[in-house]
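Blackboard transcription, Thursday session:
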Amino acid sequence: MSTFDEEYSVPINSAADIVVARQKGRALAIQLGFNGSDPTMIAAAISEVARNIVNHAKHGEIVLSGVHDSRRQGIQVIARDDGPGIANVEQAMQYGFSSNKGMGVGLPGAKWLMDEFDIQSQVGKGTRVSMRKWLV
Amino acid sequence: MHVPILKQGGYLIATIQSVLSDADLLQLRDDLAGRVGQFRSRGVIIDVTVLDVIDSFATRTLRGVAHMLKLRGADTVIVGIQPDVAFAMVQLGLTLEGVGTALDLEEGLAFLNAKAKRGGVVTRTRGAAAPLSLATALHGARTKRGSSRT
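(Written on the board underneath:)
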């Protein structure tokens, strides 16, 4: 069993949980071998997607795990909630677009910080953001 | 985690002690707004050395604090942003536009002192009008001081 087989779930119910999620993410990133500014970038991306949950859905979870394909290893961050969902995902991913009190930086910013970024959302059902960063 | 605010001469120094939640940041904003009035401070240093991440919310709040304190007549300087944190902020496209930043506490104090020395006179304006009005202002001040002595 390596650290790649483990999965950590952090429930997000309040702003304080955002700090817990990003600290767990940073710790896992370091465990997986990320160094330099990578753990901070991963923590910042987690902070943004977790905040998205708090601001729009109120409750959700962040699931952190190691991930690998045939040639490389990395970290996977999944943020999911059963909130109101996003009607126009394309618009939500535009830099500077904000539906309420934010700066409209969160989701597009998180995408820039990670290597892979995928968002699925259904109105009335919830949102699932999946992000990966690979160890080069 | 409550952020202690120290009074240092005409300045206030808020040193963040641990990773802050959103509520802590908002509390800091309210505390500083109150203290600036209480101590009639002209400058505020916020030391963020220990912050692991400065995300969009933290950036927006720090910017808000600085602009609010400016309206209360105090300049704010953020000190101690770590290299990795700065790098992630750049990647996120976050800026602290209109907010003073300095490397550390020492540089932060120097920043505020330099600002105080300029005394709010717009020194960046080029052209004949600026130096002239500056000279007039200085002359006026000197005359005033001189006349009050006699």
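Lecturer's comment: The CA atoms of residues 22 and 98 of chain A lie 22 Å apart.
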